[in-house]
Design brief:
The chain has 356 residues and is of the alpha/beta class. 35% of the residues lie in helices and 20% in strands. The strands form two sheets. It has an eight-stranded mixed β-sheet, with helices on both faces. Strands 1-2-3 form a three-stranded antiparallel β-sheet, with no helix packed on it. Strand 1 and strand 2 form a beta hairpin. Helix 4 crosses helix 6. The longest helix is centred in the N-terminal third of the chain and has 20 residues.
Length: 356
């Protein structure tokens, strides 16, 4: 796997004139020598277009590093602010509150716990694309949204993101049910809790619902204590072009997954291949409704459809809805909010949240 330094040297050699060729070649040779001996220049894993990891451990992210502050969005009227959930791990969330809530019940609205995408290695809850998307979704669906800024691989390989999702769920439940954060305590409806995410975030949303169901099978709730009559209910899980794979994927996809989880989980692990779960295991999915969206040019589409087929053929008693968008690629709806297809995608998600 050629390093970016060597690529730049090759381009330089191609562009210089004949009289400068020997000097450029000598420079390229020096760069190659440096790359072979300098751990800050030698590539360990090239995960383009997301990031490059070097032998020294240094990580160079190639996208998803921009941030915008929380604000009052003039277009949607949605207010946002940031909260640190766990200073020890750095877990934080960005809260979104609608100023117009026509679907409020007694002043309360549904709560949406949202996980961003980015292959588990890039992006954040503070990225301008996700900030714009959550502003629009909060206004459209009339929810209090909690966008989770979970830890990223490779510095924090899986299951770090899964652990952060669990901590975020616990934090939301504490604040909605027992008071604390004013937006959740005063506006959030604990009986209308939804979990959603796109790409890697969809994977996290699914695994969070499975973890909650497993806890509840042992008589525990999200707080790790007896749930009793107040057992947490997730009204719906929305998986937006989620990151799922299967046993038969190309070697590069296998290497990427191994990089994300530091080799801890194979391609048959239910974290990445839930379609391989036995029918009885799906009973752990702690929701009665699932929305799966698939963009038909997404290479992950076969695994997303396999998920729905497995879910419908399992012992899970709920309802699974499949929404497909023709002619679009993976998570197209994030970057083209004004397009008719993206608008329909968001309308479908908002209707899913407000169906009950």
């Amino acid at each position: 796997m050629a390093s970016r330094v060597l690529l730049a040297a090759a381009l330089l050699c191609a562009c210089v004139g004949a009289g400068e060729g020997r000097e450029a070649a000598a420079g390229a040779s020096a760069l190659r020598s440096r790359a072979a001996t300098d751990p800050n220049s030698e590539v360990k894993f090239d995960f383009t277009p997301f990031l490059i990891q070097y032998r020294s451990g240094r990580v160079q992210r190639l996208m998803g590093t921009r941030v915008v502050p929380a604000s009052l969005d003039a277009r949607t009227g949605v207010a946002s602010r940031d909260v640190v959930v766990d200073r020890a791990t750095g877990l934080a969330v960005r809260l979104y509150r609608p100023t117009r809530s026509p679907r409020a019940r007694g002043g309360r609205v549904p709560v949406l716990l949202y996980f961003h995408g980015g292959a588990f290695v890039v992006e954040s809850a503070f990225d301008p694309v996700y900030h714009a998307y959550l502003n629009a979704l909060t206004a459209k669906a009339g929810v209090v949204a909690v966008s989770v800024n979970y830890r990223l691989a490779p510095e924090h390989p899986l299951p770090a993101a899964y652990d952060d999702s669990w901590a975020a769920l616990q934090w939301v439940l504490r604040n909605v049910q027992h008071g604390g954060d004013p937006w959740l305590a005063k506006r959030g409806d604990a009986s209308r809790l939804f979990v959603a995410g796109d790409s890697a975030g969809g994977n996290i949303a699914h695994n969070l619902a499975m973890r909650l169901g497993q806890q509840q099978q042992h008589g525990l709730d999200a707080g790790g204590v007896g749930g009793g009559a107040r057992m947490t209910t997730i009204k719906g899980v929305a998986l937006l072009d989620p990151y799922f794979l299967g046993r038969y994927v190309d070697p590069w996809a296998q290497r990427a997954w191994g990089f994300i989880c530091a080799g801890r989980y194979g391609m048959d692990h239910p974290y990445v291949n839930p379609a391989a779960l036995p029918p009885a295991a799906w009973r752990r999915l702690a929701t009665a409704r699932v929305l799966m969206t698939v963009s038909d040019q997404d290479r992950l589409g076969p695994f997303q459809r396999a998920y729905v087929d497995a879910l419908r053929g399992s012992e899970w008693p709920g309802q699974a809805q499949l929404y497909e968008t023709p002619g679009e690629g993976h998570c197209y709806f994030l970057n083209y909010l004004a397009s008719p297809k993206a608008a329909m995608h968001m309308a479908t998600l908002a209707a899913f949240i407000n169906a009950t």
